[in-house]
Structures are given as structure tokens and as C-alpha cells.
Amino acid sequence: MSDLFLTRQAEFDELCDEIQQAGVVAFDTEFISENSYRPKLCLVQLATPQRCVAVDPFVVDLSRWWDIMVDDKTTIIVHSAKEEVRFCLTNCGQRPRKLIDVQIAEGLRSNSYPLSYERLISRVLGHSVISTETRTDWQRRPLTQRQIDYALDDVRHLIECWNVQSRWLDDHGRLHWALEEFEQVINDMEAERSEDSWMRLSGIRRLNARQLGVARELYRWRDNDAATRNQPIRRVLKDDVLIDLARRQPQSEEELMNSRDMNRAGLRRYATEIVNCIRQAVAMPKSQLPKPFEQQDTSHEEPVVSKVLALALANRCVELDISPSLVGSSNDVRNLVRWYWSDCPEDQRPKLMRSWRAEVCGDLLKDVMDGKVTLRVVDPHSEHPLAFDRISSSEAD
Q1: Rounded to 5 degrees, what are φ and ψ at 265?
Q2: CB 260 within 8 A of CB 289
Q3: Which residue in 110, 120, 2, 122 sits closest to 54, CA to CA?
Q4: Across all residues in the chain, what is the average pLDDT?
Q5: In this structure, are residues 16 and 65 in contact, taking their beta carbons and an 8 Å threshold?
Q6: Which helix (H) or strand (E) holds 34?
Q7: Half-sphere exposure at residue 112, Cβ-oriented, CA atoms within 13 angstroms
Q8: Whether residue 134 has pLDDT greater than 70
Q9: Poorest-confidence range of 6-10, 53-57, 348-352, 390-394?
Q10: What is the C-alpha separation between 116 and 182, in angstroms, rounded?
Q11: Cα(231)–Cα(228) distance, rounded to whole angstroms?
């Protein structure tokens, strides 16, 4: 087991040398997130073309690994990269340079996203991976051989999997799509830690300037309190309660406690701090308040047009065998419609009109709205029953 579970620094340093020489490594983590501000890293799994090993982060200094993860020479292959990116940002403050996410890659060569690791490996390689330790408490020691074997299965096939996927993506002209999406995952994780991360709260866009000021102050207080106490943010104040408080702006503890949301376990002890936060935001000069989000005017025609375009998008994704959920959501379609009706400002291109998505569907959807393309049903029993017919210039006239 010692060959598979590294607990000595010298062994780990030797592994890092091997990784740097190979230039490619599969990476996964096991962690506990229920009781701390940030997830607690409990196990690191790494696989080179030669071997798979687990590393105990409780006794091994992982500094060399984080350096490898942010260099520009080593390809890091993961499945569902978000948590691994977060660990990298937390531990070295830099973004990974050559990150590969096989879950995203599969969504760009099939219509399934997101696929679990087990289903993905079965689909790509035909290997069976069995999950039997999903309820393991990874911070307990000692770990059993069975737990180690389970953890290593999460990296054992990743290099081979990416080799198959990358060849296919390259052959079909989609490799650059995947590389762009990998970068976007990292961008999204960095945005979580930015000064403006509060603007990503669900429901925030419907608040006015004063309400936004309250939401911002509550968000910053919540984050600081959770970090100080090393508690999960959701235990301090849930997002839905925060947004409700921003709307109502109770300025006394009595008024605050009138809400049934404040009956949630643990919230009462924060009453004084919450009220002080709200008061500060309410007293803030208008010049210091956030700028309200631009409210989009919706017309009666927008839902109809959006539904037509959503059908066209779904049909297009089936034709290309690509996951529609990875390409864009219904909200992305609505943003495209609103952008089009705003005379298509070049500096405000929506998601579906940028980069590879424009290539896949954006240009097509815009042409539909321009009246350059008509949709018709060619085979209602087909997987893609619609056909897009371009109108000739004479027909358009």
C-alpha cells in the first residue's frame, strides 16, 4: 500500500520529478466541505503514464504540486475541474496554465453533459468503474486499501481518455472549442473570488440601487464572518434570505425577527450584525451605491421568438452531436434576441454570438431572425426533424 499511498516528502518530491519529466498528469481530489469555509483537502490522486498514486496532504507539503499545476509545461487532466481549480487558486493564488477537463470535452463530441466519471469512462474507453466509497469520510485515518483503490480509479483512466477525445476533437475541428471552454472554467472560478462576486447572486439583477447596496454589504459581512469562524457560507446566511433582506431592509432587530426566515437555526445570533449592516447601507450616500442592472424591456413577441430559436438551437446540436446544455441555456437565447433587437452592438455580443458558439449556432440563429433562413419540418420521426433553408436573394426581394 505504501507504493500507492505516499506519506513521505521524499517520495512525493520524486513523484513531482516524474510528473515534470512526463509533461502530463491526471489529477483528482477527495475533500470534505460540510463544516468549513473552504473545502478541506483530504487526499490528492495523481496518475502519470507509468503509475497511479495517492498523496496524504495532512503529512506532505504539496507546494511543488501547486507549482507544477501553474507552470506552462505540464498538462493537467481532470474530470469536472471546478473544485481542483478552486484548490489551486486557494493554495497558490494562480490559475492553472494547461488544464484539461474530460467532462467538457465529452460534451463537445456527444450530446451528453455533464456525464459522471463512471459513465464517461465507460462511453469513451469501455472500461467499468465502480463507485463504492462515495460516503467515505476522507479526513479519517488510516485509510483502507479499498478506499485507496477507489480513489485511484478516479485518475487511472484520465490520460487515456483525453488521448481518445483529443484525437477526435482535432479530427473534427473542435479541439479549439474545448481549449476555450477549459479556460472559461478557470475564469468562472476566479470570478467567484473577485470584489464583484456578490453580483452573481441569484435574484440580484432585479434589485434597485439601494437594495443592491444592502445586498453588497450583507454579502461582504457574511463572507468575512464565515472565513473568521471557518464556517460554510450557507450556515451564516443563505442566498435567498440575503436577497429578501436586501428588499425589505429591516432596521431593527424586532422588525428583522418578524420574518419567518429568521427562525432558521443559528440565524438569531447574527441579528445585531445583520441590522447594523443594513443600517450602514441605508445611510450610504447615493454616489457610493452600486449602479442598478439594466432592465431589459420584454415584448409580447420575445417568448415566441425565443422558443423558435431554442428549437433551432436544439435541432442544430442534435445535427452536430453536441450537448445543448453546454452550448447555451434558454437565458442565453433570450439574451441573443434582446441583443438583436438592440441593433446588435458589436461590443455587447451575447454568449451565443461569440467564438465557437457563433460557429455552431449563433450565426444561424441571427440569420433566422434576419429572415435569411426558414425552418421546416422534414421528418417528424427523425432525431433532428427540422431543416434550415437559406432564402435566395431573389426570394428575399
Answers
A1: -55, 130
A2: no
A3: 2
A4: 91
A5: yes
A6: none
A7: 10
A8: no
A9: 390-394
A10: 17
A11: 8
Under DSSP, the state recorded for 260 is G
Please report where in the chains the cell 487558486 appears, as a residue: 89
CB 186 within 8 A of CB 85: yes
Backbone angles phi, psi at 376, to 5 degrees: -145, 155
The backbone torsions φ and ψ at residue 373, rounded to the nearest 5 degrees and listed phi first, read: -135, 140
How far apart (Å, rounded) are the C-alpha atoms in residues 361 and 356?
9
Residue 242, sorted as left (phi over 0), alpha (psi -120 to 50) or beta, turns out to be: alpha
Residue with cell 426581394: 397
Question: Distance (Å, rounded) from C-alpha 369 to C-alpha 363?
Answer: 10
By mean pLDDT, which of 97-106, 180-189, 253-262, 348-357 is the weakest? 253-262
pTM to 2 decimal places: 0.90
Q: How far apart are the C-alpha atoms of 79 and 118, rounded to whole Å?
A: 10
Question: CA nearest 245: which of 196, 212, 294, 288?
Answer: 212
Question: What CA–CA distance (Å, rounded) separates 55 from 43?
Answer: 6
Alpha helices in 172-300 (DSSP H): 175-191, 209-229, 233-236, 239-248, 253-256, 271-282
What's the grid cell of residue 294?
Answer: 439594466
Cis peptide before 285 (omega within 30 of 0): no
| CA distance readout (Å), 15 to 20, 66, 82, 158 | 9, 13, 24, 18
* C-beta of residue 63 within 8 angstroms of C-beta of residue 114: no
Grid cell digits, residue 191: 470570478
CA nearest 363: which of 376, 373, 353, 348?
Answer: 353
Give the phi and the psi of residue 395 in degrees, each rounded to 5.
Answer: -70, -35
| CA–CA separation, 180 and 105 (whole Å) | 11
| pLDDT digit string, tens, across residues 146-200 | 999 999 999 999 999 999 999 999 999 999 999 999 999 999 999 999 999 999 9
